[in-house]
Specification:
By secondary structure, this protein is mainly α. The protein contains 14 helices and two strands. The protein has a two-stranded antiparallel sheet. The longest helix has 22 residues, at 150-171.
């Protein structure tokens, strides 16, 4: 079997030292992204994913001479907060999202639109505030304050992602890996866009008699995006997971040297002997 670029990357990520989760927190553990991609993508979708990963890699790894890469900087600034934030029922790779969305900046964007650490809109946050699982701090805070506060914005974002996951897993009945990849895609592109594309696929003669999973969805997104080169929204959706993947690879050296990783609270997955880090 010929190993392509991103398949090498999938194995390389196995070398990351991942933090053992504390009883009250989900740390920045990116291992689940590798696992979900392996489970959800078939050969065709993996080829599409690899192609996009290569095309967007320069956007993530680029840095000005003499300056730290902005995603590395975001990781360093967020680590003290992420030690204490999270949910046991949300995979750790979702913590890559605010690095891509805002570079971990509290006031990035416009309050009237996408804003804050996780770049959420005010209307969504206002709805999340009313839910039973929202904390007292979330319920009593203004949406602008929530979006620019590291703890409150993360709480709101994880509730939002979990709701998307619940729909795709328990209503649409997709497997766990597919459901989380759909949830993260919907966080960026909107659940309506994801559902509309799935419905359009279901109505085509080639698909109307078989179950459509994330692999078929991503391949269709890949093909359709090429047919609509001026559709920026669709292109961003296509590139979203590959961008998160590249950020995870970029942060590998920082995870290896981070002070919070000690012999007592971390473990390292063994690297395949056939894989070398580029």
């Amino acid at each position: 079997m010929i190993l392509r670029y991103c398949y090498h990357c999938l194995l390389i990520l196995l070398t990351l030292p991942f933090l053992a989760p504390a009883a009250t927190a989900q740390h920045t553990n990116f291992q689940s992204l590798e696992r979900y991609l392996q489970e959800a993508l078939d050969d065709t979708a993996m080829q599409d994913f690899e192609y996009v990963v290569k095309n967007v890699k320069h956007n993530i790894f680029w840095q000005q001479e003499g300056q730290e890469n902005k995603y590395q900087s975001a990781y360093r600034r967020s680590t003290p907060f992420f030690r204490h934030l999270g949910r046991d029922d949300v995979p750790g790779f979702v913590f890559l999202i605010p690095y891509l969305e805002s570079g971990w900046h509290p006031t990035r964007g416009k309050p009237s639109s996408d804003y804050g650490y996780w770049q959420m809109v005010s209307e969504v946050v206002a709805e999340i505030k009313t839910l039973d699982e929202a904390s007292e701090g979330l319920r009593n805070s203004h949406p602008d304050e929530i979006r620019s506060n590291p703890a409150l914005s993360t709480e709101a974002a994880l509730i939002h992602l979990r709701r998307y996951y619940f729909y795709f897993r328990h209503v649409a009945n997709f497997p766990e890996a597919d459901a989380w990849l759909f949830a993260v895609t919907a966080f960026n592109w909107g659940a309506g866009n994801v559902k509309n594309l799935l419905q359009a696929m279901q109505q085509t003669p080639a698909n109307n008699k078989k179950t459509i999973g994330f692999a078929a969805f991503y391949h269709h997104l890949f093909i359709t995006s090429k047919q609509r080169p001026n559709d920026k929204s669709m292109r961003v959706a296509l590139e979203y997971l590959p961008n998160l993947w590249n950020i995870a690879l970029l942060l590998q050296p920082l995870q290896q040297t981070a002070q919070e990783v000690s012999e007592n609270n971390a473990f390292t997955l063994k690297r395949s002997s056939s894989v070398s880090i580029p």
